[in-house]
Amino acid sequence: YQEDADNQVLRQTPRTSPLPPSLKEHYRQRVEASRSALTLLHQAGTLSKSRYPIDLTQGALTDLKHLSKVRSCAIALKWEALWRADKNDPATAKSIQAGLALGRSLKSEPTLISQLVRIAIHTITCASLERGVNQIKFSDEQLTALGSSLHEADDTTPMSHALAGERATFIENFRA
Fold this sequence. Notes:
- It is a single chain.
- This protein is an all-alpha fold and 176 residues long.
- Helices cover 71% and strands 0% of the residues.
- The chain has helices at residues 2-12, 21-33, 35-44, 66-86, 92-104, 112-135, 140-153, 157-175.
- The longest helix is centred in the last third of the chain and has 24 residues, at 112-135.
- It is elongated, with a radius of gyration of 18 Å.
- The model has no long low-confidence stretch (mean pLDDT 90).
């Protein structure tokens, strides 16, 4: 699986070092192929609230197919952020913020899997942040915005709501 191989190379490359040429080219190609989607993700990242159309009345059978797509979008934003960071582009901060906003879009879903995907998205995004802060001199404004986004991502309330939602779902299953 290519993503696993890329991650292994990335982990072996010091955060202060440039990306290996093969990985840099790979990310460039992925970013170029995803340009229109990335533009939409950056626009969506400016929204303060968002949600996905899910029908929770289905209980344990609720369709959550959007979660894999959201995770794929987080990976695309990671590629963009890593590619930008390697070019010493301060716009890396926007890619990181869009990734954190993508995680925030799952904040109100009262399912455990949604919250685990939200946490995974934040983990994916933080890999970009680690490289970004080691390679780019962000402005004070960018650092403040990144700090605010990280603070918001650190909210544990959605997990307690998810556990309550899971409990409610299983109560209905036990009744049936």
